[in-house]
Amino acid sequence: MLRFKIVLSILILIILGLAMALLLIGSVEIPVEDVLHVICGGATNKAWEFIILESRVPLIITSCLSGAALAVCGLLLQTSFNNPLADPSILGISTGSSLGVALLLLLSGGALYTSFGGYIAILVAALIGAFLIMLILLLFSSVVKSATMLLIVGVLISYLASSAISLLNFFATQEGVHSFVIWGLGNFSGVTTKQLMFFSTVIIVGLIGALGLIKPLNALLLGERYAENLGINIRRTRNLLLLITGLLTAIVTAFCGPIGFIGLIVPHLARLMLGTSDHLRLMPVTILSGGVIAMLCSLLSVFPSDGIIPINAITPIIGVPVIIFIVLNRRKIFYFN
Fold first, then answer.
1. I need a surface site. Which of 41, 275, 303, 324 has the fewest CB within 10 A?
2. What does the H/E/C string look like for 255-301?
3. H helix or E strand, kind and range, residue 191
4. What's the pLDDT score for residue 126?
5. CA pair distance 283, 289, nearest whole angstrom
6. CA pair distance 148, 162, nearest whole angstrom
7. What is the DSSP letter of 313?
8. Which residues contact 173 (CB under 8 A, 6 or more apart)?
């Protein structure tokens, strides 16, 4: 328990430090004292106040919540399917979002990408695509009893959606392909202050739902048969897990694009820090660790003075070494106590 408290405290301090760094660092250089004046409500420069309150603060909140959401999705799926390489994209939910956006952008020739109405349409298309895939998975979940078979179904659906996206790209205009590629690179700065309340509420509700699954997740660590003997309804737990994972993945993908690696690597980092797979401690650490990784990626993305590096160009730099380490030390990482 002491180790858990220390890790939790360190992660909270890192999040606060990254938040301050993201307030101070950006394409526009703003003095520290002026940033503090804006935060305290005594700003004298309206342009700097707009940049901080309308751009940098939403970026901090969006990246922290998005990282937490994707990390929790990865933890839920890895435990449910007993697969260390499971993440939000493996069930095809994020690919479904991409298919929805591909249909909209590629068929419209990319004309919608730059308009405000087009931005709303992109969000709606991404959400519809994700929830259609989630509905298909829930229908299969009522028929397929094996978690492994359901995982295979998700992978196959993902391949089908990817194939459809490839066909759309082949027949689309150059402008349409360019718009879709830009969206697919990932970006935490696309959530406005007006959208932030809806975005935050949905993610917080999803995270609370995930916390409610701690007991059945711990039971699943010892196998489905053992969990059933403890009175856990496996099918209902699986459906709730799919709903929560689908909701969180859909909302993050719709607003930020298909962000990779965070859902895959963060649960493993949390296990390494704690030395346990007890979800009572693992879940909070995973939530905070996801926020830390996403905020770190955001910080790295805004360092260049002439633009913003896409998030999906940064996450593999962090993710690939972690995955290699996991593969080489998999017996040391997975704890069942």
1. 41
2. HHCCCCCHHHHHHHHHHHHHCCCCHHHHHHHHHHHHHHHHHHHHHHH
3. none
4. 81
5. 10
6. 21
7. G
8. 106, 109, 110
**How far is residue 248's CA from residue 190's CA, in Å, rounded to a whole number?**
17
Structure-block tokens of residue 76 = 């839920």
Query: pTM of this prediction?
Result: 0.87
- The more confidently predicted of residues 287 and 135 is 287
CB-facing half-sphere around the CA of 279: CA atoms within 13 A: 21
* DSSP string covering 33-69: HHHHHHHTT--S-HHHHHHIIIIIHHHHHHHHHHHHH
Q: Which amino acid is at 59?
A: L
pLDDT exceeds 50 at position 27? yes
Spatial separation of the C-alpha atoms in residues 35 and 243, rounded to whole Å: 40
For the segment 254-263, the average pLDDT, to the nearest whole number, is: 87
Q: What single-letter amino acid sits at 213?
A: L
Q: Given its phi and psi angles, is residue 231 left (phi above 0), alpha (psi -120 to 50 degrees) or beta?
A: left
| Structure-block tokens of residue 114 | 């730059």
- Say how far apart CA 90 and CA 77 lie, in whole Å: 9
Please give the DSSP secondary-structure letter assigned to residue 172: S
Q: What is the pLDDT of residue 337?
A: 43
C-alpha–C-alpha distance, residues 337 and 150, integer Å:
26
**The two three-digit tokens of residue 124, written as one number:** 């709606």
As a whole number of angstroms, the longest Cα–Cα distance in the chain is 65
Helices marked H in 52-192? 57-81, 93-107, 116-141, 147-171, 174-184
Six-digit token string for 120: 């709303």
Above 60 in pLDDT, residue 115? no
C-alpha distance from residue 149 to each of 62, 144, 279 (Å): 34, 7, 24
Q: How far apart are CA 267 and CA 17, in angstroms?
A: 22
> Distance between CA atoms of 217 and 62, rounded to whole angstroms?
27
